[in-house]
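Hi everyone,

Forwarding the result from last night's run.
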Amino acid sequence: MPDRLPARPRAVVIGASVTGLLAAAALAEFADVTVVERDTLPSGPEPRRGVPQARHAHLVWSGGVKAFEELLPGLVDDVVARGGRLIHVMGDMVSRAPNEIWFRRFTTTHHRNLVCSRDLLDATLRTHVLTDPRITLQENTTALSLEGDANRVTGVRVRAGGAGSEGGTGGGTGSEAVLPAELAVDASGRGSRAARWLVGLGLPQVVEREVNAGVAYATRVYRAPGRAAGAGFPLVNVQANPAQDHGRGGIILPVEGDRWIVTLSGTRGGRPTADADAFADFALSLGDPVIGELIKDAEPLGDVATTRSTANVRRYYEKLPHWPDGFTVLGDAVAGYNPVYGHGITVAAQSALALRGVLRSIPLAAPGTARRLQRAAARPVAAAWDLAVGQDAFYPGATDTPPTALERFLTRFVDRAVATGARNPRALGALLDVMSLEKPATRLFSPDMLVPMLFGPKKPHLAGPPLTEAERKAARD
């Protein structure tokens, strides 16, 4: 008889979040994966209790779209087939930068963002990942703690059934068990208990930084008005200005089902509320009233949803002097960002791709592999963090540590890069390479940016939002 094949390594992923599902997809090449999820997952594109932020506007930058296509070929095509859109940046957008400059709708760049409801994205992702026979889902199961010691994590203690918050000890009454694993991945999001678990194993407390601009979000869904339904209406984005005391912004995200997801934001002293009667008036109060003008006569399809969990929070796991084998932290459990920048899903996809890249070069259970995984995951995190904090640190009360001289210089430089990219297509390409997380920030110092910045030629800045008359008419008729 032939020799039995050696058993594949075992991996446990905590959380069926976007990060968790993408990590499971990456790990399935090397291990049998169990995804532990505290919720019951919906069967289709429906809301779920554990993702309240799904109600707000989401998009996937082109850097994330590329990572999706590498990890899960066909995923993006399926989202589009079900009503999502790949929109050209900036051709299919009407966008005002934080420095209050409107971008021209150049069509020469390659960048395409994926736009749809978060419910549709999550449902399509679940279909692609959870049908893989190498991946097993355990729903209604809460991760309680790590098994092992400061040198190696050997598994995850879980409670099946019963109540309890993911990553906590909860009050559940279900049965407990240990899931053995050569690698455990925490993808449980902002509420992660990984830092506490590591202290319990004897490791030091991880360094954490928070930059909280005090942003609140309010979202309402509308029926696309007039002939804007099904017409490929552009995404409309008015970004908040950190130089203003009450930074207010908003976005219209046309999604499947002829709907507009409209998300408004404001910082301390200027936040939107759940008052449905005040929603359109708040939109009219932005630095430009274009969003309010487009929705004031549109039909709302529900109430206003709000959230204030928007702080930028980063945990520097990669800098701990010692890291246990067999454990990795990914996604929002490492760093959560102000959602206005739209980088969370892109970072999740790129981190999963980085995980796969490391495991293609060294065995999953080899000594030191987990530390390499953590450091690799930190690279896309750092890129998104620098972009978010470079803006939010300037809001009053955002951080106890004032921006450094270098941060102030870089912020001024980025403002100038935005001003150049807004009216020069060559510079816009360099800017979008960075904003989409396709290339590092050093791209902003390339000739593509510096030559137009210093010597031109430059088109004049726009006086207002570049909506065409046909688009305005379509939203009215």
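The chain has a mean pLDDT of 91.

Cheers,
N.
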